[in-house]
Amino acid sequence: MLFKNTAIIKHTIFLNLKQRTNIMRTITLITLLTIITLGVNAEKYAKASNTSIKFKIKNAGSYTDGSFKTVSAEGTYDDEDADNIKLSGTAQVKSVSTGNSLRDRHLREKEEFFNMDKTPTVTMKSYKVVKESNGEYTVYWELTMRGITQKIKTTMIAKKSSGGYDLSTNFKINRNTWKLGGGGIKTIAMDDIVIIDIKTSMK
Question: Within 10 Å of residue 66's Cβ, how many Cβ atoms?
């Protein structure tokens, strides 16, 4: 009788171990399928195109519009996880254009403006992104002009487009923060505030 009971106990333990093994295999399989599914849904977009940088500033009471004709952007956009969003852009000072060749040359070359020979680019790089709602983010940037780097934050809008997302941000800066344009009588008619509009597509 004792041997029979022992055999039953051993058989029961074996079945319990087998059941546990099957349960663990099932849990592992479900976990793997979940990870794979999440990986498929959380698509990242890392190819930037159609980047534009436009600006305007009041001068003698009316707005002067301009843009950078040669710009580039790179980074990653992830609609599911803002921590994965990394963006940066570069504008070539030599490409600044306001529709007036004399003014453009002044902006590019003068020491008190972009000083192209010394600082040939303007750069902007994100270091933190916070998702506020679907399609709206607060982005923290390092903006470098004239060799001066300052931190700013802007609101970025993301709109679903064919094969990816269109990103845009519109914001204001004070040119004096970057010592852009100098001061005194030469810039008395120039406003301090510059309005900037940036767009790019991530696919």
Answer: 20
